[in-house]
Design a protein that fits this description.
The structure is a single chain. The chain has helices at 3-11, 19-51, 64-85, 89-93, 108-123, 127-130, 141-146, 157-161; strands at 96-100, 148-152. It has one domain (3-155). Helix content is 62%, strand content 6%. 21% of the residues are buried. The chain has a two-stranded antiparallel ribbon. It is mostly helical.
Length: 162
């Protein structure tokens, strides 16, 4: 049996992550992403101010280029962690993991669908996440769209992996 199929078989016994664990991981990751966005924005404005000679134009109004850079930065943060371990840093703290329906690590397609579907679903008062309260498999809408699931790992899970 391959290591991937062993993980898939093992994770089938893990329960879906609760709404509260998901929210806690989201809050944790929000602080990390906000700090990352501040660093990228500061670097961007430093470069733009030097390029434009320190004019006021560099810091006034909506900047679509900065928006695109920040979107790519946040997308890269989540997809890196989801593809590497199935977990962001907040998800590691709260012992939850994203995996495919077969139990493997998400592919880029899963991550992309999950990220871009979660933006409007979370923006709509969190309805995408709250959907799990009425879903028979306790899946959020972004889980359904990306054909992935979020599971809760048991205590001591990481100790067994060493």
């Amino acid at each position: 049996m391959s290591a991937q199929s062993a993980v898939a078989t093992e994770s089938e016994n893990f329960p879906p992550a609760s709404l509260w664990r998901r929210i806690a991981a989201i809050v944790y990751d929000t602080f990390l992403v906000a700090a990352l966005m501040m660093m990228v924005s500061g670097l961007y404005h430093s470069v733009v101010n030097v390029w434009l000679g320190g004019t006021e134009e560099a810091t006034v109004g909506f900047d679509p280029f900065l928006f695109l850079i920040l979107l790519i930065t946040v997308f890269s943060f989540f997809t890196y962690f989801w593809r590497a371990k199935g977990q962001t840093l907040g998800m590691q703290v709260w012992r939850i993991r994203i995996e495919t329906e077969q139990g493997g690590l998400p592919e880029m397609t899963h991550c992309t669908l999950r990220f871009f579907s979660a933006i409007p679903l979370m923006g709509a008062c969190g309805l995408g996440l709250l959907w799990m309260l009425v879903d028979s498999k306790k899946m959020a809408l972004q889980d359904r769209v990306s054909k992935s699931r979020v599971i809760e790992l048991p205590k001591g899970y990481y100790d067994k992996q060493s």
